[in-house]
Each structure stands twice: as structure tokens, then as C-alpha cells.
């Protein structure tokens, strides 16, 4: 190997290491900032934790709302993302696949506030008849019980808006991993008499399992931290635990609660909000850590 190639390898290694280290430094900096500035928020005056009297139930209510909206969004988005990715890689003609993939990728460039305004002004009123139908026919299920919100600004609407927002990234990753399935595996399945769906089921999906999980977790991370869209479409009543998806009594998320209250003049409340931000940071880190563990285990099992 020539000296120029060795120098190039060393330069590339140094740049890659610096990029990875900078990410770790940035994450550590965010964690240290939230820990230092928000430490006092864990034991602030009881009046700052309304409707509770301590930090733990206050943060638990916000964390419940965050997880509820994000998980519902992923339940809606993941089947669509997998279906769209399979259509683009195994069913659609190449010209049509290219156009649809480009349009889906464009969704990722739309600002979240635009999604929020669209959900507030257009999608919310349009979904009101559906929400009333769900309440009328499926009201015996706790999720659809209660009095339907007249504005349509419910957890149900927030989950749908978030599902549309996370669809591009989840679809893009699924599309890439489906396209990396060994061609010989697909041709062997078809040669043995499998239909196209059987080939996808037994050759494509098992090979792509870890990629699907990774795309789902990246989308979940986006949904957990979304702020403006949720703030606009969700009529939040504060930190609380409720399973109703169609009423006006909705749990707030951590990110939207911070955005709604951080500009106030109460410094003590800002400290509490920073403490909840630390909770969200740690929770998101644990979710991604667990997802990475599942991906590694899935890859080893497949091998």
C-alpha cells in the first residue's frame, strides 16, 4: 500500500472518529446542562406540580401522554411504512417507484408547524365524524369512551398527525433494507414455487427484521420529541393519566408542555420544566438503547 493511501486512511479514520466523538460530546453536554439546571426541579414548591404535589406523579403524567401519543402514532405508521416500502421495492414499476419514493421523502422536509396547522384547521374537522362514529359504535372500549371533543383536538388526531410525520423516515429505512435482500434468496423462493407474497414473507421480511425495528425506533424517537405539531393539534389538560382518545380531557406530552409554559416569568416553573426535559432525554435514550439491543439480538438470531 502506498504512503498516500496510508495517509488517506489515517485522515479518514481521524475524521470519522472526530464525528463520532462530537456526537457523544454533544449528548453529554445536553445531559449535563439538563441535570445541572433542572436538578432543583425535582424538589420545588408543591404548587408548581399542579394538579399533583410532587415531581414523580407530575412527570409520570407527562411521560404517559408522551408515550401514549407516540406509540399510537407508530401503530398507525409502521404498517403503512412497511406496505409502502414493499410496494416500491417489489411491486411498482421502476418509474412509478421513483416518483412515489421522491414524494414520500419530500414529506420529511415539511416543517412540523405546517403539519400542526394542517391538522388543526383541516384534518381535525374532517375527522370529527369518524371520531363520533367510533364513540357511538365502539364506546364500550375505554379508548373510545367519553364525550367526544367538539374541536377534534384529541389524542386520536395527534397520533394521526405524528404518524404522517414519521412515515418518511420509517419508509425510507424499510425501503433500503428490503432492497438489500439477496437476489438469490428471492429467486430461489420463486423457483421453488412460492408466490410473490410467500417470497416476501419467507425471504424478504426475515432478512429485513432488524432494519424494520431500527426504522420503527427512529420514527418512535421522532414522535417522542415532537413539539409544535402536538402543541397545535392536542387540547392538553396538563399532566394526567387517561386512556380516552376522543375527549377534550387529554394528557399533555413533555415536549409540548415545555413549549407551552417555558416562556412564562416563573423561574421556578422553568426549572421544573427542565427537569421534565431531563426525564424525556433519559427515556428516549433508554428506548433507543433497548431498540439497539433488539436489533443486535435479531441479527445474531438470523445469522
UniProtKB/TrEMBL annotation:
Which residues are listed as membrane-spanning? 12-35, 55-88, 100-120, 155-174, 211-234, 271-295
Task: Answer yes or no on keyword Membrane.
Answer: yes
Gene Ontology cellular-component terms listed: plasma membrane
Residue ranges of domain ABC transmembrane type-1 in the record: 63-291
For this entry, list what GO says about its biological process: phosphate ion transport
Going by the UniProt record, its keywords in alphabetical order are: Cell membrane, Membrane, Phosphate transport, Transmembrane, Transmembrane helix, Transport
What would be an example GO MF term here?
phosphate transmembrane transporter activity
Coarse class of the protein's main subcellular location: membrane
Membrane topology (UniProt): Multi-pass membrane protein
Where found, per UniProt?
Cell membrane
InterPro entries recorded: MetI-like, MetI-like_sf, Phosphate_PstC, Phosphate_Transport_Permease
Q: Spell out the Gene3D superfamilies in the cross-references.
A: MetI-like
Q: Which family does it belong to?
A: Belongs to the binding-protein-dependent transport system permease family. CysTW subfamily.
Role this protein plays: Part of the binding-protein-dependent transport system for phosphate; probably responsible for the translocation of the substrate across the membrane.
Q: What is this protein called?
A: Phosphate transport system permease protein
Q: Which organism is it from?
A: Nocardioides acrostichi
Task: Recite the lineage of the species.
Answer: Bacteria, Bacillati, Actinomycetota, Actinomycetes, Propionibacteriales
